[in-house]
Amino acid sequence: MRADARRSRRRLLDAASELILETGGEPARDAVAQRAGVGIGTMYRHFPGRQELLRAVALEALDRTIERGEAALAESATGAEAIRRYMHDAVDAGLGVVNVVHALLDDAEWPDRRRAAQGVLDRLVSTARSDGSIDAAVTASDVALATIRFSRPLAVGLDLATERGIAHRQLDCYLDGLTGAG
Fold first, then answer.
1. Which of 12, 59, 75, 76 is disulfide-compatible with 82, CB 3.0–4.6 A?
2. Does the global pTM surpass 0.70?
3. Measured between alpha carbons, how far is 109 from 121 in angstroms, rounded to an integer?
4. Interatomic CA distance for residues 127 and 148, integer angstroms
């Protein structure tokens, strides 16, 4: 793919993700193209149908979140720090789009992504348990589902920056309770 085509695709994915998180639902394709600063023809060349666009947005968010989870594990001094960093990074990576888009997809099965995400979550929880940062009763599913809850848009007309600011504040309160830091 040519460099300009890659940039257009990137702008379309970013625009779609932003609009999904701002509205809490599926954005109009012309709104995505306008937000991305490209023509509707460019949108259709990259994503001929709505399913291709929605699937690409969801997979992109999952890939970013998995990557950031790996980085949190590699670069954090403690398990609690790794979980905190992962969850905040997941909010910033737009993980909330997965929850919104999942119900709109004809095929939402991504076994390779699910395995990769589960592996990161298992290692995050295992690391935090082994250094005593969290209680043994906390599971990878607890971390995953809480992350999704904090990543979901409120869909009350707030701009994306305000939404994320609220999510980060509430996430810190949750994490302080989870890790005993509060």
1. 76
2. yes
3. 19
4. 21
Complete domains list, the chain, with CATH: 3-179 (1.10.357.10)
Structure token pair of residue 114: 């699910």
pLDDT tens digits for 96-146?
Answer: 898 888 888 888 888 999 999 999 999 999 999 999 989 888 999 999 999
CB 28 within 8 A of CB 43: no
Residue 107 class from Cβ within 10 Å (0-12 exposed, 13-18 middle, 19+ buried)? exposed
For the chain, where are the E strands, in sequence order? none
Compute the distance between CA of residue 181 and CA of residue 35 in angstroms, rounded to an integer: 40
For 58, the token pair is: 């969801």
**Phi/psi of residue 155, each to 5°?**
55, 45
Tens of pLDDT, residue by residue over 46-57, are 999 999 999 999
Q: What are phi and psi of 77, to 5 degrees?
A: -75, -30
Consecutive H or E run containing 166: helix 160-179
The CB-based long-range contact list for 1-10 (8 Å cut-off, 24+ gap) reads: 5/46, 8/36, 8/38, 8/42, 8/46, 9/46
Q: How far is CA 159 from CA 16, 147, 166, in A?
A: 15, 20, 11
Three-class secondary structure assignment of 101-121: HHCCCCCCCCHHHHHHHHHHH
DSSP letter, residue 159: -
Contact yes or no for 108/161 (Cβ under 8 A): no
